[in-house]
Amino acid sequence: MINKNLIINGQRITKEEDITAFFQKDHFSCNIDDYCLEVEFSPDGNAFIGWLNGDEEICYFDNGSGNTDSVALRINICPEERMMCYDSTALKEIVLYFCEAGQRNPKYHWIQDDL
Questions:
Q1: Residue 48 backbone zone (phi > 0: left; psi -120 to 50: alpha; other: beta)
Q2: SS3 state at 111
Q3: Alpha-carbon distance 115 to 112, whole Å?
Q4: pLDDT (tens digit per residue) in 13-69
Q5: In whole angstroms, what is the distance from residue 110 CA to residue 57 CA?
Q6: Is the whole model's pTM more than 0.90, yes or no?
Q7: Does residue 1 sit within a domain?
Q8: d(CA 101, CA 13)
């Protein structure tokens, strides 16, 4: 069930099909209270995913490759290839989990940024 406080790119969202429509954008930001999930896409449609807990914690999706080379995104540059999600099913699971719980999906690995 979608969290009643979910806002994506400034719009209140209540249905799953409205969420997946954002997968066609260059970037989108999901917000539930002080929690945020940021997704930015590469030209190939792969995703750089970041999760933020207010000012306390920042984490990035970890694909397990260990590759620290930069990757071009549609808007910015992903700092490390290991932070890219190449699996569309995983991306959908991560986004929908956040849209329900406001948390990082525990099924996947995350890199914590040192603030």
A1: beta
A2: strand
A3: 9
A4: 989 889 999 999 999 999 999 999 999 999 999 999 999 998 789 999 999 999 999
A5: 12
A6: yes
A7: no
A8: 14
Q: SS3 string of 1-67?
A: CCCCCCEECCEECCCHHHHHHHHHCCEEEEEECCEEEEEEECCCCCEEEEEEECCCEEEEECCCCCC
CA distances from 104 to 39, 69, 77 (A): 13, 24, 22
Q: Which residue range(s) make up the domain with 36? A: 7-113
Chain-centroid distance of CA 102 in Å reads 11
Tokens 């699971």 -> residue: 93
Tell me if 112 sits within 8 A of 83, measured CB to CB. Answer: no
Q: Report the number of distinct structural domains present in the chain.
A: 1
Residue 19 in any domain: the answer is: yes
Mention every residue, 6+ apart, whose C-beta is less than 8 A from residue 52: 35, 36, 37, 38, 58, 59
Q: Does 18 fall in a domain?
A: yes
CA 10 – CA 52 distance, rounded (Å): 17
